[in-house]
Amino acid sequence: MIIINGIRFPENSEAIILEPRECHNAAIIDYDIERDVAIYSERLFLMSLIVCQEYSYQQAIEWYTYNTLGIQISNYPVFITEDGDEAL
């Protein structure tokens, strides 16, 4: 069992955890066992880009949109918006 932010991931999980973990792990808010994916808070992930990468808010949005959203590979994280919806 792997525990991140008090969230339990099975030892055999293939969920992708985004790097650098020391920056982005704080944005993990849940784990979906059926899809075997980590669930990240979109807001907290953007904050991690601002703090760890020293991006401006606009740079963080651009990086997140270009490099994170829309990736379609197995076990890739899901991002949840402030409204509780899955980011697309």
Draw up the topology in text.
Layout: E1 2-4, E2 7-9, H1 21-24, E3 28-32, E4 37-41, H2 42-52, H3 57-67, E5 78-80
Parallel strand pairs: 4-5
Antiparallel strand pairs: 1-2, 3-4
Descriptive account of the structure:
- By secondary structure, this protein is of the alpha+beta class.
- It has helices spanning 21-24, 42-52, 57-67; strands at residues 2-4, 7-9, 28-32, 37-41, 78-80.
- The chain has one domain (2-80).
- It contains three helices and five strands.
- The strands form two sheets. It has a three-stranded mixed beta sheet.
- The longest helix is centred in the middle third of the chain and has 11 residues, at 42-52.
Task: Looking at this protein, list some descriptive labels.
88 residues; alpha+beta; three-stranded mixed beta sheet; two-stranded antiparallel sheet; 3 helices; globular
Strand order of the largest sheet: 3-4-5
Give the overall silhouette.
Answer: globular
Rg calc:
13 Å
Distance between the termini: 29 Å
Count of individual beta strands: 5
Number of helices: 3
The biggest sheet, with number of strands, parallel, antiparallel or mixed sense and barrel status, is: 3 strands, mixed
Count of folded domains: 1
